[in-house]
Amino acid sequence: MLPSVSKAGGVGSGRSPKIDVAPATLTPLAPPQIGRSGGGITDLPPGPHERHLPVGAPRDPAVGDLTAGAAGLRLGKLPPSIRAVSLRETFATDPDRADQLLTKYFESYEAFFPDPDEREPFDVVRSYLLEPGSHWDILLLESRGEVAGGCHWNALDTGGHGTWGVIEHVWLTESSRAKNLFRAALEDVATRLTSEHDGALGIVGEVNDPRLMTKNEIAEDRENSVDPGLRERLWGSNGVKKFDAPYIQPKMDADGSPVEYLSFAVFPFDDSLKSISGEAFLAIARTYFESFGYHKDEGIDVRGLDVFQRMQDATPDKVRLLRMSERRTNAQARSDV
Questions:
Q1: Which of 129, 150, 186, 260 sits at 20 to 30 Å (Cα–Cα) from 52?
Q2: pTM of the shown model
């Protein structure tokens, strides 16, 4: 199965963003067989970094150079049986329990992504969670003692343009899609992000843009995950928008290639946020690219990459936030087709 967001990235050479969230009415993947090899998560006593959803509202963000008001984030109501677990925080306080949870999580994660090229191995993921000074985390979603999904996310400090969360990988079991855990994951990340970073402004993430994809790429996405147009509608129905600017994912290992059919989505913490500056948009993208393991390991200056220069040349001074259903007027021109 191909990642629903990116085909780039080698295992262990850098985190490869993969976001796979399908509407509940679709069944593109068989649900993983969770817990058949043993007990569920609730066989382990609750830890201090687990809480039931819905989560509390985050503080109002500072808007900085952004054209936003102070409407704040509106949280939805979710079943009380849903629990969110931060694996990074659990490793910091109870490593044995964290290893148990991560092992249980991987049973479902590997069943959902059976191709090893689409996920990173246990030891690599564990090293991310233990990396000092990092914010990279897995939010494990649990429902009635079983793994319901996961959200891999990070915090991006862009300096003068605020702190943003970035979702690198979201997956949900078929049964959990009906409970709208995609929104639950966004809201819980928002709460964790704003509790640690005053002035956090939103959550960003890559998503396939069907307007830029070839017929074969759309067919592959539909066969292996979900129709990209339906994915856009799901994201849009949960308050996600997208930047009206070019976005190209750089290659994530020495043998990889850029991915040119993506858009950069955003879950703003303020409903009145209508635009950001082009400088702020590029700062978010640059900070995200700099977090890729390949770029850090090789000492690559992201600003010198051809794809970043193409983005820089085509990014307007003011970048609007669009509905997911809207066509970008400042989308990138593909050079690979």
A1: 129
A2: 0.78
